[in-house]
Amino acid sequence: MLDGKKVLFSGMQATGTLTLGNYLGALKNWVTISDEYECFYSVVDMHSITIRQDPSELRKRARSLLTLYIAAGIDPEKNCIYYQSHVSAHAELAWILNCYTYMGELNRMTQFKDKAQKHADNINAGLFTYPVLMAADILLFQSDVVPVGIDQMQHLEITRDIAQRFNGIYGDVFTVPEIYLGKAGAKIMSLQEPEKKMSKSDENPNASIYLMDDTDSIIRKFKRAVTDSEAQIVYRDEQPGIKNLIDIYCAAAGKTPEETVKEFEGKGYGEFKSAVGETVAGILKPVQDKYQELVKDKSYIDAIIKNNAQKANYFASKTLRKVQRKIGFPDKIR
Ligand code: AQP
Questions:
Q1: What is the residue with the minimal CA distance to atom 15 of ligand 1?
Q2: How far is the CA of 201 from the CAs of 19, 174, 323, 325, in angstroms?
Q3: Residues of the chain with pLDDT under 70
Q4: Reported pTM
Q5: Is 197 known to be catalytic?
Q6: Which protein residue's CA is at the shortest distance from atom 8 of ligand 1?
């Protein structure tokens, strides 16, 4: 609890251009629930370097991501939007938690297996201990809830396990966080391979809708989306392409799968795909316009970066000090 409100933490990596999956699975929910909680939204640039990054690109993407948080509707005066690398307590707590996490637990993480396969030439220790840094991110702010997509569920579970283990040894040090899953859009799949999740690092640009894609590209990509030859708009696992488009439509238009199936009963895939494309383009347009306006105001964004880093450092260092004392690190002489 902070100022009588529950605490929420979430973050995104600056590993590429945000996709519709990131937006519907996370960012859109962040905006909806931000009034209810004391929120910390981080651009997790320390996580990003688990995959090799071009330094100047990473810097640009991180700023662009932070700006997109605001463009999507997160008020930076009421919510703490900051770069992870500006708060050194993330790294310090991660080291400590590494010593309370078992190799066997980390070995089970499916994201590590997927990413290790994708980046076989760079299976670094950071990629392996990624979930520990994520646990540190969350526990540092004594977060009550963490809104993420389904793909991050396993990482949330290990965070809870680490927190409970630590509390079991040292008393009530950490709040054990709950996962917050949005009603729709929790797992958006690739438009080209609907059995794979939509990812910002996917090399095929037609597989993802990017947040800054223009209307024509969005509509074109949906038209090209892989479906099937069943020719009926039904919400079932056997038609993963259509199921994904229904999920996207539901999340974008605020409808249920039943309502959507009824709305498009007897209609062809072409008509449905156009409707999905137009609806998605319609919800992204205001975000894109706001983004273009914000990037022109350098000093405004700079001030947010500075002020919010101070705020995040203040709260993070409180937890870190508590943890350091509990485990027996000597007090600093001031
Ligand atoms: N396809 C998705 N559907 C729903 N939610 C998703 N998220 C990611 N992809 C989908 C959610 O977006 C948030 C940001 O995630 P991240 O930047 O930490 O990295 P990620 O989960 O690894 O996302 P990507 O897009 O797949 O990035 P890369 O390609 O770099 O690995 C999280 O809340 C996630 O659940």
A1: 12
A2: 9, 33, 35, 40
A3: none
A4: 0.92
A5: yes
A6: 22
